[in-house]
Amino acid sequence: MMMSKNPKDQLIVALDVETFEEARELAALLAPSVDIFKIGSQLFTACGPVVVRYLMAMGKKVFLDLKFHDIPNTVANAVNAAVSIHSDVLGDNQNPSGKTNQGLLMYTVHTMGGKAMLEAAANAGLKQAKALGIKKPLALGITVLTSEEKNDNIPALVLERALLARESGLDGVVASSQEAKSIRQKLGKDFIIVTPGIRPKESDTHDQQRIATPFEAIKNGSDYLVVGRPIVKAPQPQEVVQKILEEIKQAQV
Ligand code: C5P
User: In angstroms, rounded to a whole number, what is the distance separating the alpha carbons of residues 35 and 224?
Assistant: First the structure.
C-alpha cells in the first residue's frame, strides 16, 4: 500500500466521451487537478491515437484501456502499437522542448485470454519500450468486470486471475475494491491494483455492481482509482474531483 502519496497520483479520470472536442474541453477543465486520464474503447474508436498524443503533449499521463483479448500474436502486435504511441504531437522538428514523450503509463489486456496471450503481451510491451528507449508502461490484467453481478465465485475467480497475471509477467490488475484486499494480501505490496466502480458518497451507481467510495478503495489497498461518470457527467466536474482527492487524502492517513 502506498502511504502519503500525492492524492493526484492515485486518481485516474476516465475520459468516456464521444468526441475529441469533448475530451479536449474536459481535459482542459480538469488539468489543474488531474494528472492521469484513461482512454477507453469509446473515445479511442472515435478518435484514434491522436487523442492519446494530445494528452501526452499536455504533460498528462495516459492509461490506454483497450482490454486486448485475441490470439497471442495479435495481442503482442496490438501492445507494440500501443507502446509506440509516444511521439510528440508536434512532430520531431517542431518540438520546442526537444524532449521525447514519456509514453503510456499503463494499458490493459484481458486475463481471460490465458497465459500464452498474457505472456506475449508482457514481453511485447517490455521489448518495444526498450527499443524506443522509453519507460515500460504498466501491463494490467482485467480480472472480472465490475459491472458483473456479485456472486459467490467472483472473489476466488479474481484472485485466480490476478495470480495468473503475475505469473505471466504483468505488473498488476484491474479489480474492484471488494477484491483489492485479498489481492494485496496474497500478491504483496508491489503488485499494482487499479480499481474502477468508484462512487463518492451519495452518487448514482449507474451499471456498476461492486462499487466502493474512494475512501474504502484506498483503505482496501488500491493504488489507483478510476472514476468516470461521477466526474464526467457532473454539472461541476472539478468539484467532484476535489471531493475525491480529499477522500483519498483522508484514507492515506
Ligand atoms: O463511469 P464509471 O466510473 O463507472 O467508469 C468506469 C470506467 O472503468 C469505465 O471506463 C470502464 O470501462 C472501466 N472499467 C470498469 N471495470 C473494469 C475495467 C474497467 O468499469 N473491470
Answer: 12
